[in-house]
Write a structure and sequence with these properties.
Largest sheet of chain A: 6 strands, mixed
Structural class of chain A: alpha/beta
Shape of chain A: globular
Radius of gyration of chain A: 16 Å
Number of strands of chain A: 7
Number of strands of chain B: 10
CATH class of chain B: Alpha Beta
CATH class of chain A: Alpha Beta
Oligomer: heterodimer
Largest sheet of chain B: 8 strands, mixed
CATH topology of chain A: Glutaredoxin
Strand content of chain A: 15-25%
Number of domains of chain B: 1
CATH topology of chain B: Glutaredoxin
Helix content of chain A: 40-55%
Strand content of chain B: 15-25%
Radius of gyration of chain B: 18 Å
Distance between the termini of chain A: 40 Å
Largest interface: A-B, 23 and 21 residues
Number of helices of chain B: 5
CATH superfamily of chain B: Glutaredoxin
Number of domains of chain A: 1
Chain lengths: 160, 203
């Protein structure tokens, strides 16, 4: 039994580490299909970049939101809009260094002009930006601002 | 209940309006008077010979602004003589973003050889009038008998990283069209940038 628990712990910790260090490319289309086909009801999608200081400052709040509501149908997705050429030398090292547990993606789109509008007509392109989708309530809201944890939690409570 | 709903819609409408306030293409711009890094006050009215302006909201501290600063310099060098000078405005509050203080602006302009005025708008008055929401954020204005009219709002080009050989030069194309007596073919674009560092409200 002891061995079993240890093995379980090992497996979960290894998968947590590998989870934390994986950064996949993501198109807007793939993001939309995640909203439609994923297992969760509320999606909090934070758009950030390794060069964006206020984005980096609020990242722990998104980590905390996900870990606090682990048992609710909430998924926090962190989508970096760094240049695709920065995947290996900026985004991955950043994610590794901070040991981020949320799912991290690098946006795989060519035209800012097109993808900003596809994500939300209300987004001017400024970072940080956060999109909150509740597919059961048909809510899709874009916030072009930096969140404190209290603000983020409040918005989640309102929209969930 | 109906009344309440109407009220809610009205409130949301107001919020939406507040968020999207600012100039749209075709609007007439009010002149401003802001302090340049040489401490002189600058207004659009000072430019008697200008045919229009390339107003760029930009700052010291946003990496995307930094990525564009050589291109902003080029725009001024190319279009000032043709009647479309660049006027750069720093929209950030130097208290929440110390890297955008007046002294730091002066230092940055000097080290990067800015050929254009770099004005401070620490109270966000002009920034709010324009409805600038990010840096860099460009407004191309055309001087007419009615006033300075907004002809283009958006990004400088579609290639922040500056690696593509066939990028779309949005601002250049817009000003070229105006110089040729036409309206820009593309008058509104979006691009990734940094949020404006607004003054923190008290309390």
């Amino acid at each position: 039994m002891k061995f079993f628990i240890l093995t379980c712990l090992l497996i979960t910790s290894v998968s947590a580490i590998s989870n934390a260090q994986k950064v996949n490319f993501l198109t807007v289309e793939q993001l939309e299909s995640r909203f439609n086909k994923g297992n969760d009801t509320v999606y909090v999608v934070n758009f950030w970049a390794t060069w964006c200081a206020p984005c980096i400052a609020e990242i722990p709040n998104f980590e905390k939101l996900q870990s606090t509501y682990q048992n609710q149908p909430l998924k926090v997705l962190m989508v970096s809009v760094d240049f695709k050429s920065k995947l290996e030398n900026a985004v991955k090292p950043f994610v590794r260094k901070r040991n981020l547990q949320n799912e991290i993606f690098l946006l795989n789109e060519k035209s800012q002009q097109e993808y900003i509008d596809k994500i939300s007509k209300n987004w001017s392109g400024a970072l940080p930006a956060t999109l909150i989708v509740n597919r059961n309530k048909n809510i899709r809201r874009l916030y072009e601002k930096e969140f404190t944890y209290a603000e983020l939690n409040q918005v989640y409570q309102e929209l969930k | 209940m109906k009344k309440l709903l109407t009220l809610c819609f009205l409130a949301f409408g107001l919020i939406a309006r507040a968020q999207t306030s600012g100039y749209a293409v075709g609007d007439i711009v009010s002149d401003f008077s802001l302090r340049n890094i040489d401490s002189k006050m600058i207004s659009m009215a000072d430019y008697k010979e200008a045919k229009g302006f390339i107003v760029v909201f930009t700052c010291n501290t946003c990496p995307y602004s930094n990525a564009y600063e050589d291109r902003i310099n080029e725009l001024n060098k190319n279009y000032q003589a043709k009647g479309y000078p660049v006027i750069a405005i720093n929209p950030n509050d130097p208290v929440s973003q110390p890297g955008d203080s007046f002294d730091k602006m002066r230092a940055r302009a000097k080290s990067k050889n800015y050929s254009f005025p770099y004005l401070a708008d620490p109270d966000h008055k002009v920034t709010r009038n324009f409805g600038a929401s990010r840096t860099p954020h460009v407004f191309v204005l055309q001087k007419t008998s009615k006033g300075n009219i907004v002809r283009y709002i958006g990004a400088i080009d579609n290639d922040t990283e500056n690696t593509s050989s066939n990028k779309s030069e949005y601002v250049q194309n817009a000003v070229d069209a105006l110089l040729a007596g036409n309206k820009p073919g593309l008058s509104f674009t979006k691009a990734v940038g940094c949020t404006i560092k607004w003054k923190k409200t008290q309390g």
